[in-house]
Design brief:
With about 375 residues, the protein is mostly helical. It has 14 helices and no strands. α6 packs antiparallel against α12.
């Protein structure tokens, strides 16, 4: 995404943004599923509410956007005072109509994906759903190839195969960790909904990158925040419609009073859930801006085994043989992909250095000697 760099002469700042985005994404990837499962374990039953909370924290983005606008405005004022700027003052909104419409469409798709994921989370242990979501990397890689012409290597193909196989292993013995009192049919539907959520978000990540490419405007981090805000707003609006139809808003006070951890902790879980899930989406969008959609998918996939381990520790979930095999296959797939990327990067850097040497003009003495030849 070199053509979308907002600060091409300041790679250090770009790296800082990437590291910060990775940290935020890691918090959201590990914390989001755990706090959502905590809600369901202790008596929460509203799937639409859980999906709504995944993007309901969108107003958080207003604060950094306001700071960014104030900073741009001060820069313009200082430049104008020195006579170095004759342009119009910066606009509070950078997004043009195309990106606005694109982010709204992606937002609606995200809202649907939120529901699919929340439905599966209500019926599956976190350790199982996390391993299923690991297959998202395979879907991200495939859609990245189709939408943004992402290049494949033998290592990335091997990674896709291993991650798919890991999901198949879980599927063959899907009922081995079924929660108590849950029927085979309900568990199977939850399993398939989680797979669908993985596939759907694997499509959304490259779609965001494609929107950046087709936007026909410089993609700055402020613009990325605007994209995130609009996307999450429309995703929340989509889920709000579902909540209204399902009458979730009327049920919240009663559910809070009956919640296993108490009414205060119920509302604390709701607030923290909105904040943590916003970290997930903000981090994912940031990594796409600084690197690529596939890089975002990889980081999500890498953190999923950590989520599984935390689920076993905090929720006392069983680490079955199938989960163990699936976990090993997933880690093997991650290692394969990273090793291939390292080799590909080294080869590309070597080819670039060789091309630079070949394109350099010959030294003056060589030119003189060539002229003296008969």
């Amino acid at each position: 995404m070199g053509e979308h760099e907002a600060i091409p002469d300041n790679t250090t700042l770009k790296k800082i943004l990437l590291v910060l985005s990775i940290i935020i994404l890691s918090i959201g990837t590990t914390g989001g599923p755990l706090i959502m499962r905590l809600y369901f374990i202790h008596g929460g039953k509203r799937v639409w509410l859980s999906s709504w909370l995944e993007t309901a924290g969108w107003p958080i983005n207003i604060a950094p956007l306001a700071i960014s606008y104030i900073y741009r405005r001060r820069q313009w004022a200082a430049a104008t005072a020195k006579g170095a700027s004759s342009g119009l003052p910066p606009r509070p909104v950078l997004m043009k109509p195309f990106l606005f419409v694109a982010s709204a469409v992606v937002g609606i798709l995200t809202g649907l994906d939120d529901y699919l994921y929340a439905y599966g989370a209500a019926r599956l242990p976190v350790s199982t759903s996390s391993l299923i979501i690991a297959s998202q990397l395979a879907f991200t890689a495939g859609f990245a190839f189709l939408l943004v012409k992402q290049r494949f290597t033998s290592y990335s193909i091997n990674s896709v195969f291993l991650l798919t196989l890991a999901a198949v292993v879980l599927g063959l013995h899907a009922g081995s960790d079924r929660p108590e009192g849950e029927s085979d049919r309900v568990y199977a539907v939850g399993f398939m909904m989680t797979v669908a959520a993985a596939a759907f978000y694997g499509f959304i990540l490259p779609l965001v990158e494609l929107c950046y490419q087709k936007g026909k405007q410089t993609i700055t981090y402020s613009l990325v925040l605007e994209y995130q805000l609009v996307m999450c707003f429309f995703a929340t609006a989509f889920c709000t419609v579902g909540m209204l139809i399902n009458k979730d808003f009327q049920v919240i006070p009663r559910e809070a009073k009956e919640f296993g951890l108490g009414e205060f902790k119920y509302y604390m879980i709701i607030v923290c859930s909105a904040i943590i899930w916003q970290c997930f989406f903000l981090g994912a969008i940031g990594v796409i801006f600084c690197a690529s959609s596939l890089s975002s998918g990889i980081i999500i996939a890498v953190m999923l085994p950590m989520t599984e381990v935390l689920a076993v520790i905090f929720f006392k979930e069983k680490l079955t043989a199938e989960k163990g095999v699936s976990l090993v296959l997933s880690l093997w797939g991650f290692v394969s992909y990273f090793y291939g990327e390292i080799k590909h990067t080294k080869k590309r850097n070597l080819n670039q250095s060789q091309n630079q040497k070949q394109n350099q003009p010959p030294p003056p003495e060589m030119e003189l000697n060539s002229q003296s030849l008969p």
